[in-house]
Amino acid sequence: MAEMKTAAAAAGGLATALAFGGMFTVAKSAFGHVDPFHLTLARFALGSAIFVIALLAVEGREALRTDGKFLKLWGLGSLGFAAFNLLTYVGLQSTPAPTASLIMAAMPAITVVVMWARTKKRPAGVTLGLVLLALTGVAMVLGNGNPLVVFTGGIGAGGLSILAGVIGWVIYTTGAAGFPTFSVLRYTAVTSVLGTLTIAIATLSADALGTIPTPGVADYTASWWQILYMAVPATAVAILAFNHATRILGPANGVLFINLVPITSFVIEAARGHQPTTAELAGVALTLAAVIANNVYGRRTAEHVTPTPAPADEPRKTLTTTA
Prior knowledge:
The chain is mostly helical. The chain has helices at about 1-30, 35-60, 70-90, 95-105, 105-120, 125-140, 150, 155-175, 185-210, 215-220, 225-250, 250-255, 260-270, 280-305.
């Protein structure tokens, strides 16, 4: 049973990587009609509705309660849905999609640091090593065999915006541990609704100030398939699957699948005519090997940890006196 849960969680992490991998190219293709703010609002208005419908069908109306943790859930939802997506899409306007995907692949390293700071426990050296190995593979893909190339061009303002959004996403996903009584679906649905509220406030405020354009019906119609892709595969499926993978595999293991996001982007470009080089294929293989190795290491470590049995009641000692 445990192995089946682990396999399902790993499949969820893979599904997230595939959906997120195409998200950058799809989103950027919609910017000609819909700006990042309105695109994000449309995406999560639809995506959150799907989450809520699923939650009502599975757990009922009671699951929509925040149990006195409204502000904490709103804050986490704002970081995970509003900050991550708005900052990422704004940064994507001036950042190439492959570069954006590489910055997103820094999630495992950021997660390790966040968990280290939160739990005060240093992660295993093997986990740290495999995270670095996976990131090296990603850099090899984007640097055509030379991982140092990705550092020579600088990140820029757009890249920093994406990086800030990624940090917000990591805090959101690791924050789920603070709600052990919430199912994965409940945590995702409630935080997505509250995060969408923040997105709506930000979008309407920017609209009122005239800092962003107001798309018309024709603009939304022209971008219907991008919105649909981002709301269903890249939101309803990917985020729920990722939260499930994080809970089952643990934040450090679950987030390692994000390293596959730039690999997916690379495959998309290859399908559009780009011929992969030997160095790029080596980088893909290195990243996949690190993802698999870290998952196997996590499972073997868990198997060797046996629960400490509760101490048995000691027999009552009888005090004996000698005459």
